[in-house]
Design brief:
Layout lengths: L8 E9 L4 E11 L6 E11 L6 H19 L3 E5 L7 H19 L5 E4 L1 H9 L6 H11 L13 H17 L9 H7 L7
Parallel strand pairs: 1-4, 4-5
Antiparallel strand pairs: 1-2, 2-3
Helix pairs in contact: 1-2, 3-5, 4-5
């Protein structure tokens, strides 16, 4: 009789929430050991603070350098970005588009495939509701990633939680079959043991 160890496959996803003053990032790892369901692990998350730089070119350079550094440290298989939302302020849209483009260029310079998702698609994938609040997204992330909810709270972490949501959305879009819950209430009903009081 041969004693074979189960084959464990891993995929690391870097999620980015582009911004010109703060850029959120989140890194998750999906571990699969068939026939068991895949496990989600939170590796890292944070915010790249750019407000202190007055020159826009400097901000873009810092974005490129920091994203490249994250890629070199965590070696993600794929990157997912939240697409800029529509704004009537053309200058804001242009700046946000440049920031997103630089983040994409950093990934592409390391041969990391990049996918974009609309904000509504991200919320829909994570919570089952495209109009979910940031609080609802945060609660669902805490449960899905099995982490302490207080770690994903605070105004300064909004961009980081958005980035984690983008990474999780990408996982759900690329996974087959995808296990979705229709709402937060449905998730609680289906997973009482994963909800901390």
């Amino acid at each position: 009789m041969t004693n074979t160890k189960p084959i464990i496959s891993e995929k690391i996803i870097l999620g980015i929430d582009p911004g010109t003053n703060e850029m959120g990032y989140g890194v998750i790892c999906i571990k699969s050991t068939p026939p068991r369901p895949s496990r989600l692990e939170l590796m890292q998350y944070g915010v790249i603070h750019l407000r202190k730089y007055t020159l826009y070119q400097t901000k873009l350079q810092k974005i490129f350098d920091r994203i490249t550094s994250l890629i070199d440290e965590y070696v993600p298989d794929e990157m997912a970005l939240e697409a800029p939302f529509y704004s009537k302020n053309v200058q804001s849209m242009l700046k946000l588009g440049r920031a997103q483009g630089v983040a994409m260029a950093a990934a592409l310079s390391r041969q990391i495939p990049v996918t974009e998702y609309a904000p509504r698609k991200v919320k829909q994938s994570v919570t089952g509701n495209g109009n979910a609040s940031k609080e609802q997204v945060c609660k669902m992330l805490s449960s899905l990633l099995q982490t302490n909810n207080s770690l994903l709270q605070g105004k300064q972490l909004n961009d980081a939680t958005d980035a984690l949501a983008v990474a999780l959305c990408h996982h759900y879009q690329k996974s087959s079959p995808v296990r979705h819950t229709k709402s937060w209430k449905a998730f609680v009903a289906d997973n009482p043991e994963r909800i901390k009081s």
